C-alpha cells in the first residue's frame, strides 16, 4: 500500500486590525510540499473578555502563489489592472470567546500559500492612545498536510497498469511536464473491475489553486478507452493525477494509463547563445575555446535572418535578461533590443522569471507599443497573452488566454490603438510568459509575409506608479517575506490610490491647510499677554509652539498643499514637545511659586517631557502626566498662599469670574474636542478649534504681573536706556 506522512506547520498568532488599507490585513505565509494529497487549515480566532469586546466578524482570504488581492472597501483598482475576486470565508466571534474553524483542500498545489485576515472597515474616529482600551482580537493559522511519500511516476509514452483498490482509496500518480510542451494527451484504457461489471472511474488532473481552480475532470464508464487533451500544460512542473473508483465499495478497478506530449521547439537562438554572440570579441580572445564559441555564435547569429527556418517552428523565443534593482523591483531587458518582431505564423515568446519566491509581493507591469510603420496591413492586430506556468501558443484560436491549468491576461495593439498596458497585482510565484502574434482579417493572403515591430517594456515594481501623488508606498514584512501596499490620503482610495470617489478637492485641501496652520496665530494674544506681564520665558515657549505647530501641520497635510521646512519627524516631535511644555509652564506660572523654584521646575519638567515623548510620542500620559503633576503643585501653592493670608487664593472675585473660570472652561472644551470629537473627516476643523481654544485659555489663565514690576514704558525706555536697569533689591526688601 501507499505510505502517507502527515506534517504540521504553525505560525504565531497575530493581533487583528480594522481594515483601512492592505497593511491592516495580517498575512500568514506557508509552503506546501510536493506530493501533498490533503491540506487542512486550522484557523483559531479569539477575543478579549473585557466589556469593550463585542461580537465581531473576521474575514479570512486564501491564495496560492501570492498574497490575496482583496477589496473589502469596494474601491476601484487601477485602470489597466485585471483583478479576479479572492476566495474568502467569514468567522464570527459572538458570545464565544474563541472560534475554531477547519478548511480542507484536497490535492492542493505545491508551493507558497498565503492567508490574509482582517476585521471590518475601520471607524473614522481618531482614538487618543490611553483614553480607551481597544479589544484585542487574535488570529492564528496552522497547517496540516498529508503527503504521499512514494507517489508513482507516469512516464511519457509508456503505458502504466494500476489498480484502484476501493472508492475510499483513490490512486495518485504524477507525470513531469517537459519544457516546450505544447500539448498533453491522457488516455485511460483497459478498464476492468474485479466483479466483471461495467467500469466507472473518475480521473482528476491537476491540483487545486485558490481563488480559482482549473482541475480537469474526466469520467470514464464502460470498457471503452477515454482520453483528454490539454493545451499548454505547465512547463517543468509535476502534474498530479488522481483516479477514483465510482463502483461498489468492495470492487477494485484495474486501469492502464498513458500520457503523451507534443513538444514545440523554439525557432530562434537561446538566450545563452545570443549572449555569446554579443561577446564574440571576448570569446575569440581565448585561443582554447575560440573555435567552438565562434561556431556557436555564428549559428546563433544567423538564426534570426533565416526566415524560412523561423516560420517552420511553432514559436520564436526572444532572450530576456532579468535585472534585479531593489526589493520587489525587477526590470526585464531584451537582449535583441527593446522591439521584437511579431509575425502571424508562430507566436513570439518572452520568458519573465518570477520564481524566486520574493517577487509575488509587487506589481508586474507589461507595456506594449506598436511601431505603426512596421505593419503593412491596415487592419492587422498584434494580440498578446501574459500567462503563468506555461505560454499560450495558439493565440489565433484562443482569444481568452487560457492554458491547461491557468487563466492568462489578454492584450492587443493595432493601428487604431498602438499602446496597451497590463498590471498584474501580486503575480503568483512562477515563470511567466508573454506571447505575441500577428492576426489579420480573413481574406488577406499577404498576412503570412507581414511582420510587426512591438516595443516591450516589462518590470516588477513594489507599487504601481508609486501609489500616485495621494498615496504612500509602504514595504510590509511577515517574517522573511516582503510585500508592498499603498496607504492613501486626502480621501483617495483604491489599491493604487486612484479612486477619487471620496477625494478632497484642491480647494478643500487648501482650506484644511490654512485652518490648521493659521489657527496657531491665536497664540499671538497669549504671547502678547505674557510679554506685557513680564513672563518672557513663557512667551518664548508659546512662540516656539506656535512656530512648530504651524509648520508641522503645513507638512502633515495629505494632499498637494504641503510645505515641509525640515524633516517631518523632527517637526512632529517639536510640535508635540512645544504643546506639552506650554501646558507645563502655564500651570506652574499660575502656581506663583518662587522664581528660582519655578525655573528649576521649568527645566527639569521640559527634560522629562522630552524623554517621555521619545519613548512614546502619542501616549496620553505624556500630556496628562505633566498636567496632573503641575496641577498638584499649583493647588499646593494656592493652599499655602490661602492659609498664609487666611483667605481664599486668588482673593479677587474678578480674577475668578473674568479670567480663571473662562480659561478653565475653554481648556475643558478643548480637551473634550481633542479626545472625543476628532475624526478623519472633520480633523482639519476640530483640530483647528483645539488650537484656538488652547491658545485662548492660556491668555485667560496667565496670572497678573508681580506688583513690584512696572508696566512697559516704551518711550521712556527707548530715550533713557540707563533706566532699564532698576534696583530690584530695594523694591523686594524695602521695609513697609
TrEMBL record:
Extent of Low complexity compositional bias? 287-303
Q: Which residues cross the membrane?
A: 511-535, 596-615, 621-640, 656-677, 683-702
Which keywords has UniProt assigned to this entry? Cell membrane, Disulfide bond, EGF-like domain, Membrane, Transmembrane, Transmembrane helix
Keyword Iron included in the entry's annotation:
no
Instruction: List cystine links.
Output: 463-473, 488-497
Give the way it sits in the membrane: Multi-pass membrane protein
Main localisation:
membrane
One GO CC term, this protein:
plasma membrane
User: Where do the segments described as Disordered lie?
Assistant: 287-314
Subcellular localization(s) per the UniProt record: Cell membrane
**Xref: InterPro entries:** EGF (IPR000742), NGX6/PGAP6/MYMK (IPR021910)
Report the residue ranges that make up the EGF-like domain in this protein.
459-498
Family per UniProt? Answer: Belongs to the TMEM8 family.
What PANTHER family does the record point to?
FIVE-SPAN TRANSMEMBRANE PROTEIN M83, POST-GPI ATTACHMENT TO PROTEINS FACTOR 6
Q: What is this protein called?
A: TMM8A factor
Q: Which organism is it from?
A: Pitta sordida (Hooded pitta)
Please state the gene responsible for encoding this protein.
Tmem8a
Amino acid at each position: 500500500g501507499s505510505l502517507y506522512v502527515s506534517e504540521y506547520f504553525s505560525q504565531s498568532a497575530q493581533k487583528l486590525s480594522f481594515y483601512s488599507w492592505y497593511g491592516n490585513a495580517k498575512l500568514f505565509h506557508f509552503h506546501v510540499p510536493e506530493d501533498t494529497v490533503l491540506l487542512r487549515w486550522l484557523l483559531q480566532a479569539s477575543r478579549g473578555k473585557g466589556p469593550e469586546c463585542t461580537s465581531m466578524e473576521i474575514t479570512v482570504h486564501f491564495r496560492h502563489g501570492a498574497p490575496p488581492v482583496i477589496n473589502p472597501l469596494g474601491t476601484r483598482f487601477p485602470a489597466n489592472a485585471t483583478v479576479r475576486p479572492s476566495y474568502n470565508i467569514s468567522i464570527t466571534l459572538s458570545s464565544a470567546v474563541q472560534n475554531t474553524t477547519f478548511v480542507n483542500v484536497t490535492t492542493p498545489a505545491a508551493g507558497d500559500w498565503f492567508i490574509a485576515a482582517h476585521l471590518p472597515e475601520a471607524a473614522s474616529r481618531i482614538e487618543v492612545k490611553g483614553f480607551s482600551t481597544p479589544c484585542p482580537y487574535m488570529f492564528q493559522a496552522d497547517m496540516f498536510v498529508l503527503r504521499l511519500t512514494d507517489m508513482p511516476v507516469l512516464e511519457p509514452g509508456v503505458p502504466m497498469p494500476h489498480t484502484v483498490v476501493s472508492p475510499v482509496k483513490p490512486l495518485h500518480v504524477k507525470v513531469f511536464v517537459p519544457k516546450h510542451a505544447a500539448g498533453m494527451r491522457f488516455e485511460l484504457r483497459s478498464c476492468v473491475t474485479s466483479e466483471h461489471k461495467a467500469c466507472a472511474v473518475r480521473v482528476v488532473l491537476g491540483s487545486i489553486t485558490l481563488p480559482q481552480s482549473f482541475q480537469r475532470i474526466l469520467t470514464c464508464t464502460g470498457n471503452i478507452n477515454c482520453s483528454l487533451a490539454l493545451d499548454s500544460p505547465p512547463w517543468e512542473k509535476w502534474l498530479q493525477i488522481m483516479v477514483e473508483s465510482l463502483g461498489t465499495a468492495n470492487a477494485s478497478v484495474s486501469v492502464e494509463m498513458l500520457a503523451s506530449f507534443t513538444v514545440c521547439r523554439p525557432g530562434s537562438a537561446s538566450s545563452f547563445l545570443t549572449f555569446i554572440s554579443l561577446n564574440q570579441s571576448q570569446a575569440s580572445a581565448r585561443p582554447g575555446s575560440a573555435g567552438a564559441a565562434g561556431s556557436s555564435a555564428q549559428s546563433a547569429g544567423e538564426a534570426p535572418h533565416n526566415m524560412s527556418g523561423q516560420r517552420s517552428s511553432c514559436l520564436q523565443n526572444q532572450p530576456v535578461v532579468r535585472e534585479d534593482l531593489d526589493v520587489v523591483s525587477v526590470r526585464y531587458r531584451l537582449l535583441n533590443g527593446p522591439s521584437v518582431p511579431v509575425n502571424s505564423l508562430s507566436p513570439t515568446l518572452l520568458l519573465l522569471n518570477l520564481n524566486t519566491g520574493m517577487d509575488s509581493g509587487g506589481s508586474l507591469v507589461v507595456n506594449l507599443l506598436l511601431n505603426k510603420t512596421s505593419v503593412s496591413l491596415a487592419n492587422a492586430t498584434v494580440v498578446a497573452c501574459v500567462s503563468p506556468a506555461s505560454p499560450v501558443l495558439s493565440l489565433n484560436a484562443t482569444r481568452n488566454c487560457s492554458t491547461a491549468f491557468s487563466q492568462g491576461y489578454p492584450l492587443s495593439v493595432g493601428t487604431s490603438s498602438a499602446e496597451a498596458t497590463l498590471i498584474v497585482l501580486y503575480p503568483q510565484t512562477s515563470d511567466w510568459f508573454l506571447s505575441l502574434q500577428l492576426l489579420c482579417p480573413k481574406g488577406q493572403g499577404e498576412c503570412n509575409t507581414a511582420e510587426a515591430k512591438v516595443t516591450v517594456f516589462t518590470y516588477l515594481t513594489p507599487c504601481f506608479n508609486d501609489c500616485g501623488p495621494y498615496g504612500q508606498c509602504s514595504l510590509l514584512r511577515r517574517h522573511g517575506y516582503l510585500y508592498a501596499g499603498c496607504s492613501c490620503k486626502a480621501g483617495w482610495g483604491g489599491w493604487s490610490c486612484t479612486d477619487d470617489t471620496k477625494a478632497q478637492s484642491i480647494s478643500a485641501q487648501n482650506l484644511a491647510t490654512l485652518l490648521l496652520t493659521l489657527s496657531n496665530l491665536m497664540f499671538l494674544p497669549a504671547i502678547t499677554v505674557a510679554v506685557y506681564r513680564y513672563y518672557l520665558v513663557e512667551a518664548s515657549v508659546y512662540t516656539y509652539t506656535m512656530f512648530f505647530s504651524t509648520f508641522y501641520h503645513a507638512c502633515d497635510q495629505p494632499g498637494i498643499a504641503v510645505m515641509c521646512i525640515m524633516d517631518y519627524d523632527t517637526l512632529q516631535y517639536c510640535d508635540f514637545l512645544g504643546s506639552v511644555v506650554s501646558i507645563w509652564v502655564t500651570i506652574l506660572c499660575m502656581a506663583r511659586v518662587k522664581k528660582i523654584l519655578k525655573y528649576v521646575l521649568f527645566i527639569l519638567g521640559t527634560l522629562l517631557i522630552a524623554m517621555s515623548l521619545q519613548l512614546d510620542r502619542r501616549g496620553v500620559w505624556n500630556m496628562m502626566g505633566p498636567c496632573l503633576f503641575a496641577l498638584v503643585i499649583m493647588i499646593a501653592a494656592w493652599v499655602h498662599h490661602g492659609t498664609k493670608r487666611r483667605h481664599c487664593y486668588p482673593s479677587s472675585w474678578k480674577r475668578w469670574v473674568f479670567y480663571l473660570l473662562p480659561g478653565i472652561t475653554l481648556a475643558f472644551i478643548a480637551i473634550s474636542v481633542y479626545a472625543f470629537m476628532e475624526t478623519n473627516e472633520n480633523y482639519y476643523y476640530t483640530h483647528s478649534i483645539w488650537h484656538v481654544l488652547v491658545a485662548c485659555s492660556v491668555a485667560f489663565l496667565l496670572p497678573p504681573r508681580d506688583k513690584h514690576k512696572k508696566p512697559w514704558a516704551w518711550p521712556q525706555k527707548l530715550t533713557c536706556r540707563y533706566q532699564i536697569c532698576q534696583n530690584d533689591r530695594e523694591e523686594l526688601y524695602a521695609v513697609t
